[in-house]
Design a protein that fits this description.
The complex is a heterodimer of chains A (192) and B (609). By secondary structure, chain A is of the alpha/beta class. Chain A has one domain: Pyruvate-ferredoxin Oxidoreductase, domain 3. Chain A has helices at residues 25-38, 88-91, 122-128, 135-147, 159-169, 174-191; strands at 13-20, 43-46, 57-64, 77-82, 95-104, 116-120. In chain A, strand 4 (77-82), helix 2 and strand 5 form a beta-alpha-beta unit. Chain A is globular, with a radius of gyration of 16 Å. Chain A starts with 12 loop residues before the first strand and ends with a helix. Chain B folds into four domains: 4-221, Rossmann fold (3-Layer(aba) Sandwich); 225-335, Rossmann fold (3-Layer(aba) Sandwich), CATH 3.40.50; 360-538, 3-Layer(aba) Sandwich (Rossmann fold); 542-601, Alpha-Beta Plaits (2-Layer Sandwich). The termini of chain B are far apart. The chains are: A alpha/beta (192), B alpha/beta (609). At the A-B interface, helix 1, strand 2 and helix 2 of A face strand 1, strand 8, helix 11 and helix 14 of B. Strand 2 of chain A pairs antiparallel with strand 8 of chain B, so a sheet runs across the interface.
């Protein structure tokens, strides 16, 4: 039935990232997409631009593996990363049965039956660590550690591959790369 | 060397154009097409090609510049959003008749939804009206390939060709194999032929005949013929799809197990639809479902109404984006499968977009309401459209209409024996784009209104492209700059004053002065000049003093309701305002907004004590 019959199985993963303008959603989805390409996987993403970037809701779709459509359908996301808790009401419909929800919120949030919910106060962590603009990477680090990278039911990639993608993006290193890596590690420590 | 790299659709289109030897490119920014021209310039630098790349004053000018390069034998492209094509439609329709000698590609990006546009219009309909072929990519990688195909098609038949991506192609990203650059090696060579390039109506009729012949031949051109995805089956039903609707359908065919039951075709060139394909469809299938965005362009060319399902039969919704959830339902119904009843993904909702913290437009609109509380406020296209939240935007029609609508309101009230204060707002880029002719018109007719030009020195909404006033070109090079005050005066305006809107009390006083002039002597222009907060933020400089809320805050909500800065947060529990330190830029304008004097600012360079 599938178009991929006969080919070696690719990890197929559908991820939705939800937040508001200024939180670095586009950066996060491109980082993940580059990590996917480095891992040898085809990738498709879809981004919100224009009006929505003025502090409004920003949504990114990321599909790793053999897909044609750039959009994730409702009920199909393996992972839903929510950088702003209030968006949960809008975007929880994307999550598949058995999918994992990672939310930037102080208290564990009830997403609905059958969903794995993982909450972390990434805002507070990022502020306390002096990297207030790296909330996105704190949440990603937390998710990688909590869900597991490159394992069955986990992320398509491991933390090391994200570190490499970050280093490639911010070539030359410097304090920006150091801040980014420390934000990622901060999330990983809290997710472990 | 074959390295897969991540490319956004717009970046991929730009790469395809430069790789195919595009020598002249022009554009006016508009979502979702804005990134194309900046990308073209990046690829130009990388390839080392000699090109002319420019942000034009508007889409009509952009199209005329690129078109003219193409009648000298060079390959040329123009890019814009779909409503920009309306502005450029005059030269396009004529260019179709006259034709080209070098490849000419018109990239017009549609926005089904719409996500960031006034309309959901389908540029393919305008291609049909102009009688130019149009290509409809389903993905960034296909858009990149079709840029080159489009140039070949244009040169094979001597016609302009449209490439029509949609938001889900422009703003999708994908791993692609970037084609090598083919440096433009031609020289401009214009062969005079006034009977063609300056044709009179008699010759236009002959040119129209020739165009009709070209379109008939293009409807048989093999390189853009529809592609069958599953040729090994002989079913009674077929799905015909184009653009991203095809990408959704192809994925769903696999998931729903339809690949061995229903034929699936991708139409690459919706107009002119290949004649042999129309015959094949009608000879082969009992039922044909057409999936396309956003008008029934393919559907209306497949003539047998009894067998075709689509937007014209109600099988496909008449408006809105064809989300994959919607296509899943349509396909299931067409295939006789159980129809999924899952919810649609949320469109809109949640936190509404607003002006950035520190944005001077907020000050301008606050001042306008103070100076003319009972006024009518025509506005225009740009970030400031978001001020609709603040009650200082009454109308938004299209680029430049703030000026003509202000005049229209005055004439309508004048003949009714009424006088009303009218304060129109328009951004600097929009003013240059389409605000100058209506300003001249208003001066001549003696219209009574105040025009506030919100001059933040950039085209902010679409990603901070330069304007004619900045003296910066598409590649960051220095260009000549237009003097806005001189331009306004040259239009015949006798009251033209420039001020910083962030100095609120003085700015309100200036607006009141302008209103007196407008009532008694005609159009007054106030230029509200303060750099865009997004540009200023990255420019650096001295750290502004921290904003503090004192004990005088009575929780009256005036600042959040009337000023709506995202950095002013109403703390419901404490019934008072607090400052969101993560977003506050320290511009300090809110200090003079608070009626209780409860907002204070530390001296520059002082952090929170």
């Amino acid at each position: 039935m599938s178009a991929d019959v006969g080919k070696p199985p690719l990890p197929r993963q559908q991820i939705v990232l939800s937040g508001v303008g200024g939180q670095g959603i586009l950066f996060l989805s491109r980082l993940l997409a580059e990590a996917a390409i480095a891992g040898g996987f085809p990738v498709l993403t879809s981004e919100t631009h224009g009006m929505a970037q003025r502090g409004g809701v920003v949504l990114s779709h990321l599909k790793v593996g053999g897909f044609d459509s750039p959009l994730v359908r409702t009920g199909r996301a393996d992972l839903l990363l929510v950088l702003r808790e209030e968006n949960l009401a809008l975007h929880r419909e994307f999550l598949a049965d058995g999918g994992a929800l990672i939310v930037n919120a102080p208290d564990p949030t009830d997403a609905g039956p059958g969903m794995r919910v993982h909450a972390v106060d990434a805002d507070a962590l990022a502020l306390s660590a002096g990297v207030p603009h790296a909330v996105n990477l704190v949440l990603l680090g937390f998710a990688l550690a909590r869900i597991g990278g490159a394992t069955a039911g986990g992320f398509f990639c491991a933390p090391g591959e994200i570190r490499e993608a970050l280093s490639r993006r911010q070539g030359g290193g410097g304090s920006r790369l150091a801040d980014a890596l420390s934000a990622l590690d901060l999330g990983i420590v809290h997710g472990t | 060397m074959s390295e897969r790299i991540l490319m956004q659709g717009n970046d991929a289109i730009a790469r395809g154009l430069v790789a195919a030897g595009c020598a002249v490119a022009a554009s006016y920014p508009g979502t979702p097409a804005s990134e194309i021209l900046a990308s073209i310039d990046r690829w130009r630098k990388k390839s080392g090609a000699t090109m002319h790349v420019e942000w034009a004053v508007n889409e009509k000018v952009a199209l005329e510049i690129a078109y003219t390069a193409a009648i000298t034998g060079l390959r040329a492209a123009v890019s814009m959003k779909q409503v920009g094509l309306n502005v450029a439609s005059d030269p396009l329709l004529s260019a179709a008749y006259l034709g080209v000698t070098g490849g000419f590609l018109v990239v017009s990006a549609d926005d089904p939804g719409p996500h960031s546009s006034q309309t959901e219009q389908d540029s393919r309909l305008l291609a049909m009206m102009a009688k130019v072929p149009v290509l409809d990519p389903a993905s960034p990688s296909q858009a990149m390939a079709l840029a080159g195909t489009g140039f070949d098609l244009s040169e094979a038949f001597g016609v302009p060709v449209m490439l029509r991506p949609t938001t889900r192609v422009c703003h999708a990203s994908q791993d692609v194999d970037a084609p090598p650059f083919r440096p433009p090696v031609r020289e401009a060579r214009f062969v005079k032929d006034p009977a063609r390039w300056a044709a009179t109506p008699v010759y236009r009729r002959l040119l129209h005949d020739r165009l009709a012949e070209k379109i008939a031949a293009i409807a048989a051109w093999p390189a853009t013929a529809p592609v069958r995805v599953n040729p090994d089956i002989a079913p009674a039903k077929a799905v015909v799809a184009s653009g991203v609707a095809f990408a959704h359908a192809r994925e769903l065919f696999g998931e729903l197990g339809m690949s061995d039951r229903i034929a699936l075709y991708q139409v690459i060139q919706p107009y002119p639809l290949h004649a042999a394909f129309i015959d094949h469809l009608l000879e082969t299938y009992a039922e044909i479902l057409v999936l396309e965005e956003s008008a029934p362009v393919i559907e209306m060319q497949v003539a047998d109404r009894r067998r075709v399902r689509g937007r014209m039969t109600g099988a496909v919704p008449a408006t809105g984006e064809l989300l994959p959830e919607i296509i899943a339902r349509i396909l299931s119904r067409f295939a006789g499968l159980p129809v999924p009843d899952g919810k649609l993904s949320a469109q809109g909702g949640g936190r509404r977009p607003t002006l950035c913290p520190g944005c001077a437009h907020r000050s301008s609109f606050y001042a306008i309401r103070k100076a003319a509380p009972a006024g009518i406020y025509p506005s225009d296209i740009g970030c400031y459209t978001l001020v609709i939240n603040l009650g200082a935007v009454d109308t938004v029609l299209c680029m430049g209409a703030a000026v003509s609508q202000a005049a229209g309101f005055d004439y309508a009230h004048r003949i009714s024996g009424k006088q009303v204060d009218i304060v129109a707002t328009i951004g600097d880029s929009t003013f240059y784009h389409a605000g100058i002719p209506p300003l001249i018109d208003a001066v001549v007719q003696g219209a009574r209104f105040v025009l506030v030009i919100l001059d933040n020195g950039t085209t902010a909404m679409t990603g901070n492209q330069p304007t004619p006033g900045t003296g910066i070109g598409a590649g960051g090079e220095t260009t000549a700059a237009v003097d806005m005050e001189g331009l306004v005066r040259a239009c015949g305006v006798r009251f033209c004053r420039t001020a910083n809107p962030d100095l609120l009390p003085e700015f309100v006083a200036l607006l009141k002065e302008a209103l007196v002039h407008a009532r008694e002597r005609g159009v007054a222009v106030v230029i509200a000049r303060q750099p865009c907060a997004m540009v200023a933020r990255t420019a650096g400089g001295k750290e502004p003093g921290a904003i503090m809320i004192t004990g005088e805050c009575a929780g009256c909500r005036h600042c959040v309701d009337r000023f709506e800065c995202p950095a002013l947060v109403f703390d419901e529990a404490a019934n008072r305002i607090r400052i969101d330190e993560m977003t506050c830029t320290g511009c300090g304008v809110c200090v003079s907004v608070c009626p209780a004097g409860a907002i204070r600012q530390e001296p520059d360079g002082e952090k929170r004590s």
